[in-house]
Amino acid sequence: MISSRVERVEESATMKSSKRAKDLISRGVDVINFTLGEPDFDTPANITQKTIDAMKSGETHYSPAVGLPALREAVAQKLRTENKIDTKAGNIMITPGAKQGIFEAMMTLIDEGDEVLLPDPSWVSYDACIRMAGGKTVWIPTDPKNKYQPLDDLSEFITPKTKMIVVNTPCNPTGSVLDKSHLLEIADLAIDHDFFVLSDEIYEKIIYDKKHVSIASLDNMADRTITINGFSKAYAMTGWRLGYLNAPASVFPSLEKIQSHSISNVTTFVQYGGLEALTGPQDTVMNMQKEFKKRRSVLVDGLVKLGLQCDMPDGAFYAYPDVSEFGTGAEITDRLLEEAQVAVSPGIAFGESGKNNIRISYAASVERIEEALIRMEKVFS
Ligand SMILES: Cc1ncc(COP(=O)(O)O)c(C=O)c1O
């Protein structure tokens, strides 16, 4: 009855952990929930206000499928100045979240049997989107001893069917930020073997001591890269469903077909909020980043004191400790919830390599992180 396309995909394991935690919370249990992939801050007030103004002034009709011209121009301007990507408004599509942009890119480029290179571990939805599009995921190893950078020689994973590689920097779940040298290697391979790059840069603003580099800014890469980004993480706008992509002219009209036949357009007044986010004051972004940095130290230092192996992540808001001294990631996830009422996600959700890891989202206050570390002693002692 259900299409094989959908049968190929399983429910997200991170969603499962999150549901379990929320279920307990709704029954009155004091669970500290570290499963969430969303900032715990409110959307900045100037963004909300501009959206209300737009709604009140009648911006409640369809917009062009690819987005409001002013927002596409603002995104293009941002990508040119901040990300050094040579682009223009005509290459920008406004999407209902980065996730839909990823789905549309996969549906546009991947044919039945095409192979997509995906770093192990990776965020859960890439593999699901690849499968729904009929593609095959080829997991490529990363090096946990070198902050999850890809291994030096990726060429052995490339075949005539390789259509795309996924790059996610800063990375969910590891927090790894790819070095420019690795991005250059990936770019060389993509050019030599003629495949596309899907570059998900949703965590670019949550980066600590390193500098974000967009692979589309490297020589000859703009023509073969779809850059994905959005407002969810940088501006605490997860519920708004607002993102964007930058695509080369060779694929843009095909992406537009999917968008116009599926969603028509992103909610018009929400796009005005995005315009304000990009063109208004940026101090809230900096403040959130500072707060995340503080939490990162409290959490990672605490985990190391508990005897876990855990690198200081360079970006995003996740710690990804190795818990193998105490059990598998899945066992420890269960024990933390049952014995300490601390909810985390098992590393296996992100790929085979994660079986000994757990992912802890530090989108929670310092007080809650400190409380969780005390509770965790029950399991890690
Ligand atoms: C790596 C990555 N990409 C994309 C998304 C989805 O972002 P959006 O809310 O813009 O759809 C997430 C959300 O958790 C993510 O972790």
Biggest sheet record: 8 strands, mixed
Termini separation (Å)?
49 Å
Rg over alpha carbons: 20 Å
Bound molecules: pyridoxal-5'-phosphate
Enumerate the strands of the largest sheet in spatial order, edge to edge or round the barrel.
2-9-8-7-6-3-4-5
Which outline best applies? globular
Percent of sequence in beta strands? 5-15%
**Average residue-wise pLDDT:** 96
CATH fold-level topology of the largest domain: Aspartate Aminotransferase, domain 2
Our count of helices gives 12
User: What's the order of the H and E elements?
Assistant: HHEHHEHEHEEEHEEEHHHEHEEEH
CATH superfamily of the largest domain: Type I PLP-dependent aspartate aminotransferase-like (Major domain)
The CATH architecture classification of the largest domain is 3-Layer(aba) Sandwich
CATH secondary-structure class of the largest domain: Alpha Beta
The chain-level structural class is alpha/beta
According to DSSP, the number of beta strands is 13
Task: Give the % helix.
Answer: 25-40%
Number of structural units classed as domains: 2
- Poorly predicted parts: none
Description:
There is one protein chain. The chain folds into 2 domains: 4-43 and 283-376, Alpha-Beta Complex (Aspartate Aminotransferase, domain 1); 61-279, Aspartate Aminotransferase, domain 2, CATH 3.40.640. 39% of the residues lie in helices and 14% in strands. The chain has helices at 4-7, 13-26, 45-56, 69-81, 98-109, 124-132, 180-193, 252-262, 268-279, 283-305, 329-340, 366-376; strands at residues 32-33, 92-95, 115-120, 136-143, 149-150, 162-168, 196-200, 225-230, 243-246, 318-319, 342-343, 345-346, 358-361. The protein has an 8-stranded mixed sheet with strand order 2-9-8-7-6-3-4-5, sandwiched between helices. Helix 3 (45-56) packs antiparallel against helix 9 and helix 4 (69-81) packs parallel to helix 9 (268-279). The protein is globular and about 55 Å long. Pyridoxal-5'-phosphate (PLP) binds at residues 37, 97-99, 123, 168, 172, 200, 202, 230, 232, 238, 243.
